[in-house]
Amino acid sequence: MFSKETYIARRKKLATSVSGGILVFLGNNESPANYTDNTYTFRQDSTFLYYFGLDKPGLAAVIDIDSGGEIVFGNDVDIDDIIWMGPQKSIADQAAEVGVGKTYPFARLAGFVAEALAKGRTVHYIPQYRADNIILLSEILDRKPATVNEGASEEFIKAIVAQRLIKEPCEIAEIDRACDLGYAMHYTAMKLMRPGMIEQEVVGAMEGVVISGGYMPSFPTILSQHGETLHNHMHDKVLEVGKLCVIDAGAEVPSHYCSDFTRTLPVGGKFDSRQADIYTIVSTANTFAAEMARPGITYREVHLAACRLMLQGLKNVGLVKGDIDEALALGVQGLFMPHGLGHNMGLDVHDMENLGEDLVGYDPGQERIRQLGLGSLRMARKLVPGHVITDEPGIYFIPALIEQWRSEGKFSDFINYQALESYYDFGGIRLEDDLLITESGCRRLGQRRLPVTVEEVEAAMAC
Ligand code: GLY
Ligand code: MN
Question: CATH top-level class for 169-462?
C-alpha cells in the first residue's frame, strides 16, 4: 500500500474530472474454484486498489462528487471469522489508512445508491467482469445482468484511464520491482532448460520464483515449443533439441504491479542458422521499436515501423517479395505477426483492459484499423512520458493460416508460399520487453535487460 496521501490525491483528482453524481467502486470477492471455501488466490480489482488501496475481499466504496464525501462499505468480522482468519482490522481502521473517514456496513450500499437514483443523481460505475458484481449491480440498479455493462459511465472510465495511464514515481518503482522478478523468472528458465525435461518442469520453476519472491504470475505462463500458437497454455511436451521454445511470463508483486516478458530459447542452447536468421529479424525489430518509442510518436507508428523492418528481413530471407511499403499498406505482415506490438501495463498486465480496449489504448478520434495484426494492437496512442507499454514483436509460421491465405491466393504477389512450406515445423518467435516513456525517449523497466541477441541467449544458456 502507498501512503495515505497518495490515495487522497488520486481521489481528489478523479473527483475534479467527473461532472457530478456519485462514483461507485466495487472491490472483488473471494472466487470459488470448486466449492465455496476452496478459492482461487484473491485478486483485488485494480481500479479499487488504485483509488482505495485496500487489498481485501468484500469491500465497495463511493465518492460523492457533489458533496466531496467518501465512504467505504464493508463488514467487520465476528468471532466466527476470527476463529478461522485470526484478528482483523476493523473496516474503519482500514479505511482510515487510505484517508477515508466514513464507513458503512456493506448492506447499506444498495440503499445509498437507490437514494441517489431516487433524487435523480447520476450513478457512475465501470464495466464489471465478475459475475457476482454484475448480479449485485443488476439488483441495485434494477437492470437485467446482461445489460449492466451497457450502463457503465464513459465519463468515469475516461477519467480513470487518463489518470492510470500516466504512472506516478511510486508506481514505476513497483513496476521496476515486478520487472526484476520477471527477469529472475526468465533467467531461471534459461539456466534450467534442458532437452528431455517436460515443459511444465520449467514452468514450475519459473512460477516458484515469483510465488516465493512476489505474489503470483501476472497471467498464466505461456511456455511452448509450439510458439506459433500465440497463447499456448499446454506445457506437457518433452523439450527436444533443435526446437524453439517461446516463454511469455511475468510477475505480479505484492502491490499488484505487473511485468510481462517474452524470450524464445533454442532447446539445447544453440540456434541453427535458419532459426538465427528469423530470430535476428525479431530481435532487431524489438530493439528498433524501443529506439523509436518517445513522446510525440504514436505507438501505431512504432508498430508499423517494426512491421516494415520485419517484412524487409523476411524479404531478405526469401519469404516475402515485392515492394515492402506496398506490402505493409496491404497488411501482408499480419500473416507473420497477427498481434499488436504491445499494450499498456501497470496494475493489470494488460492495463485497464476491463475498461474497454479502445478507450484505454486509442486517442479520441483515433480509429482502430481492422486488419489482421493491426486490429489487435491494444495500444495505439500518441506516447507521453509516464506511459508503460510492452514492446513485443514476433514472427510466427502458422500452417493453418498460411494454407488458408494460399488457398485464397491472398497477397500472392508478396508472399513466397512455396518457400514457406519448409517453415511449417518452425514454430514462432516473440521477444518482449517493458518500456517506460520518458521525457526524451524511453527506458526498459527493471535493472537489467534479459539476454536478447542470439549470442547473449546462447551464452546465458551455456553456463
Ligand atoms: N504476455 C501475454 C500478452 O501480452 O498477451
Ligand atoms: Mn505482453
Answer: alpha beta
